[in-house]
Amino acid sequence: xxxxxxxxxxxxxxxxxxxxxxxxxxxxxxxxxxxxxxxxxxxxxxxxxxxxxxxxxxxxxxxxxxxxxxxxxxxxxxxxxxxxxxxxxxxxxxxxxxxxxxxxxxxxxxxxxxxxxxxxxxxxxxxxxxxxxxxxxxxxxxxxxxxxxxxxxxxxxxxxxxxxxxxxxxxxxxxxxxxxxxxxxxxxxxxxxxxxxxxxxxxxxxxxxxxxxxxxxxxxxxxxxxxxxxxxxx
Length: 234
Known about the structure:
By secondary structure, the protein is an alpha+beta fold. The protein is built from six helices and nine strands. It has helices spanning 21-38, 94-103, 116-123, 154-163, 184-207, 215-228; strands spanning 4-8, 14-18, 48-53, 56-59, 75-78, 109-113, 145-146, 169-172, 176-181.
């Protein structure tokens, strides 16, 4: 039986700690959220981050500035959606995080952000086609656009889960983007890549009709990405 230790943070909230694993996981959520904000991927208090942990997830709280967030503020939620009492309210997008984890057993972390160029494309309701081979970093020959639904709704949760069923990133109509990864840094790195591709695609559109790579070529690129991983440059 794991001994339960209770610690008090500088903010005065009590942090239950099961060994060190939960504290490490909570810190990873805070670190990823801070990096997302500081790299300009999500202005203000927008966006959210979560990681899978034991029988549920750890997710950023609703409405709390990232630079004020501590590990104790991270909200633990069961995979069935139950939120134990005594915690801050979880992110308003809790439902789609849970839906993605249920449909993607391989997903270890989720980053959702409102990065500038990805959001512009999402508001124009444009997916990102294979105009560049790095689109394959999201796991296929495009970065899909999922239909609009009200934030925090069950409809949005199902839309995002479906969009990420066969991809590791998607755009969300009139909203932003979401990326999954094995851990927080991996999900954040993919979100950054999506933002870079979105900016490049917008600039290509200014020049005219993009030249899109063929499906068989993208299948070869996806296969190579699977073999080499995403460490270093492709």
